[in-house]
Amino acid sequence: MGTILVAYGSKEGQTEKIAGRIAEALAAHGHDARTASVADSDVGEALADADAVLVGSSIHLGAHSKPVYEFVREHRDDIEARPNGFFQVSLSSALDDEDARAEVATYLDEFVEESGWHPERMAAFGGALRYSEYGFLTRMMMKRIAKDATGDTDASRDYEYTDWDEVESFAADFAEFVESTAGTAAGGAAV
Ligand SMILES: Cc1cc2nc3c(=O)[nH]c(=O)nc-3n(C[C@H](O)[C@H](O)[C@H](O)COP(=O)(O)O)c2cc1C
């Protein structure tokens, strides 16, 4: 089976953790999966070596990671030349109300519009509140946001909202997608 690159942009570590879990799930499906930060100096080479690619980005202040945009803009042709997918990580995806769902959809639309890349597979996962990683001002701001959002305002601990079953099922779907694409190519060659 082929090599799959899971490239991520993560500020406080939750998107990186999700990328790791996706890579484990892909490996369980028989793929050679590796993770890399989009900021790594050799991420372009890792992409060139890969047969398929997933890109993950967290959301901060209503926007996706700048390094992820830079990676996608610089390598769009290489990304589009392979089976590809995108996953987004945010607090909004942890909330079960209509406004939050609309926000999640808007973030995805904005990413597609601003990057110019139309991923073949997309997913949105709940992230985390990592008070232990925040400086004083960010901690105050996130406590205020959390009060209305999740109610989790005890900054002496962290909170994780990621649904790991959803993450594994996305990875399984992507593994199947990659296998079906390879099958098509092999079938075409056999005709
Ligand atoms: C300063 C800051 C701003 C954030 N802004 C948003 C936001 O606008 N919308 C949202 O849904 N989540 C927001 N979040 C939540 C993050 O998306 C969430 O914490 C995520 O797990 C971060 O992923 P990372 O650890 O990979 O960077 C924000 C978090 C922080 C710390």
Kindly identify the CATH topology of the largest domain: Rossmann fold
Order of helices and strands: EHEHEEHEHEEHEH
Q: Give the oligomeric state of the chains in this entry, treating copies of one chain as homo and distinct chains as hetero.
A: single chain
Classified in CATH, the superfamily of the largest domain is Flavodoxin domain
The percentage of residues in β strands lies in 15-25%
CATH uppermost class of the largest domain = Alpha Beta
Number of domains: 2
The outline comes out as globular
What structural class do you assign from the helix and strand content? alpha/beta
Helices and strands in order, then pairings?
Layout: E1 3-9, H1 14-28, E2 32-37, H2 43-49, E3 52-60, E4 63-64, H3 66-80, E5 84-90, H4 98-115, E6 121-126, E7 128-129, H5 136-149, E8 159-160, H6 164-190
Helix pairs in contact: 1-6
The structure holds flavin mononucleotide.
Structure description:
It is built from six helices and eight strands. The protein is α/β, with parallel strands linked by helices. It has two domains: 3-127 and 162-190, Flavodoxin domain (Rossmann fold, 3-Layer(aba) Sandwich), CATH 3.40.50; 130-160, no CATH class. Strands 1, 2, 3, 4, 5 and 6 form a six-stranded mixed sheet that branches. A two-stranded antiparallel ribbon has the order 7-8. It starts with a strand and ends with a helix. This is Protoporphyrinogen oxidase. One of its GO terms (biological process) is heme biosynthetic process. GO terms for molecular function: FMN binding; menaquinone-dependent protoporphyrinogen oxidase activity. Pfam families: Flavodoxin_5.
